[in-house]
Design goal:
The chain is an alpha/beta fold and 413 residues long. It has 2 domains: 4-194 and 383-403, Rossmann fold (3-Layer(aba) Sandwich), CATH 3.40.50; 201-379, Glycogen Phosphorylase B (Rossmann fold), CATH 3.40.50.2000. Helices cover 43% and strands 17% of the residues. It has helices at residues 20-31, 72-78, 85-97, 110-120, 132-139, 149-163, 172-180, 201-209, 231-241, 258-267, 286-290, 311-318, 329-338, 349-361, 363-379, 383-403; strands at 4-8, 35-41, 49-52, 55-60, 101-105, 124-128, 166-169, 188-190, 217-224, 247-254, 274-276, 294-297, 323-326, 341-344. The strands form 2 sheets. The protein has an 8-stranded mixed sheet, sandwiched between helices. A 6-stranded parallel sheet has the order 11-10-9-12-13-14, with helices on both faces. α10 links the parallel β10 (247-254) and β11 (274-276). It starts with a strand and ends in a 10-residue tail after the last helix.
């Protein structure tokens, strides 16, 4: 049974940088014969309606409410109210496109989307990209306000989990977190942030890698910046070994604390060892990875990073690069299971430096670790596997809807 799936996203689509998860899921569902309609934000430079790569996009002029702007009044009017503009927009979106099931991306929009869905008798799938309560706690710690955003996010998440019919998480640890909080195991699917399994990918980019390959030992990080990424510790690690190892840090990305990182590199006298590219289009990151000797994910370990997994880990592994990661739970589990790199205690620039120096001095062992990671991606950690999990969920949705009469709410998919 082909479905009309209505995705809802509190950003414009397509996004910059691209939301790879939304794009991969939409493409997979369309290729399986479903229709995908997407309700997203309207920016002034784009059309209100558009079809792109088979996705029927409807954009609405609702200002995005960023976490930094969360106050009781803002949150209530924007999300947690039957008069929320997102409730009204979802109702119109469903009616105009005859949607069968709503697929809402991330926590903030779950309540308004689920509110509209219950009124219209539709099931809701909640795609939990990020774990909002600990993320908000990290971003807005100890404000001293009587209204605490992190506390509200936790309460809001609890209420939303009771309203939806199924939850998709990005990693097993996130699934277990929900089970520990009382969500039924059969109500949760895991669809990871893996990459499509293109067998020619390394060969496509090895030829262009020479343009980025200096004679030094290249250690690469790809992605957005910010204090939770742990890049300060990476720069500190470089200062501990640069007299013995000709290390070059290649930081492919930017945003947030880029200026602070540049200032830190200057203060530690390693600015000439730190290369920051600024924003790079997703399709252009592969040559940087190909040019690397080691790739890193030095994320700060906390309740947020213990329940999520970044795309970059699988990008590194797919290109056959040894990895060095912090001991955030999913990173530690996958790297240990695949024997594809080294794990250091989060926050320890000393142990991060030791891992990098060992790899610099043992290139053959590093190549074997990289090959272990490549094989793990080819056989298990790839989008073919996760696409199957997504399609299995929607086969269940179709089966339940096919047998349902009347309201489809709480169909236990």
């Amino acid at each position: 049974m082909a479905l009309k799936i209505g995705m809802v996203l509190e950003r414009d689509f397509p996004t910059t940088p691209p939301d790879l998860r939304v794009e991969k899921e939409a493409r997979t569902l369309i290729e399986a014969g479903h229709e995908v309609h997407l309700l997203s934000l309207l920016e002034t430079s784009v059309a209100a309606r558009e079809q792109r790569n088979g996705v029927n996009i409807v954009r609405v002029p609702i200002p995005m409410l960023r976490i930094a702007d969360w106050t009781p009044a803002n949150v209530k009017s924007h999300f947690y109210s039957r008069q929320s503009p997102w409730v009204q927009a979802t109702r119109r979106f469903v009616a105009a496109n005859r949607i069968d099931v709503l697929h809402v991306h991330d926590l903030p929009l779950v309540w308004p989307v689920a509110t509209a869905a219950r009124e219209m008798g539709l099931p809701v799938v909640f795609d939990m990209h990020e774990i909002y309560p600990p993320m908000v706690a990290f971003m807005r710690p100890g404000t001293g306000d009587r209204w605490r955003p992190a506390h509200w996010a936790a309460q809001y998440e609890d209420r939303c989990l009771r309203l939806v019919d199924h939850v998709i998480t990005v990693v097993d640890e996130s699934r277990q977190r929900l089970i520990d909080r009382g969500v039924a195991a059969d109500k949760i699917s895991v669809v990871m942030n893996t990459e499509p399994n293109d067998p020619l990918l390394p060969e496509m980019h090895q030829m262009t890698a020479a343009a980025y390959q200096p004679k030094d030992f290249v250690v690469t990080y790809v992605g957005t910046f910010g204090r939770i990424r742990g890049l300060e510790r990476l720069i500190e690690a470089a200062t501990k070994i640069y007299l013995r190892v000709p290390i070059q840090l290649l930081l492919v990305g930017g945003q947030y604390n880029q200026a602070e990182l540049e200032e830190l590199a200057v203060a530690l006298h390693v600015r000439d060892r730190v290369n920051i590219t600024g924003f790079v289009d997703f399709d252009s990151v592969w040559p940087f990875i190909a040019a690397s000797d080691v790739c890193v994910v030095p994320h700060v370990k906390n309740a947020f990073t213990d329940a999520t997994i970044p795309h970059k880990l699988f990008q590194y592994m797919r290109m056959g690069k040894p990895v060095v990661v912090s001991d955030a739970a999913p990173l530690q589990r996958i790297v240990a299971e695949c024997n594809c790199g080294y794990i250091f205690p989060s926050g320890s620039s000393d142990e991060l430096a030791q891992a990098l120096e060992w790899l610099a001095n043992h290139p053959e062992e590093g190549r074997q670790l990289g090959e272990n990671g490549r094989q793990a991606v080819l056989t298990r950690y790839n989008w073919d596997h996760d696409a199957h999990a997504l399609l299995t969920l929607y086969q269940r949705v179709a089966g339940r809807l096919g047998r349902c009469t009347g309201s489809a709410t709480n169909i236990s998919i």
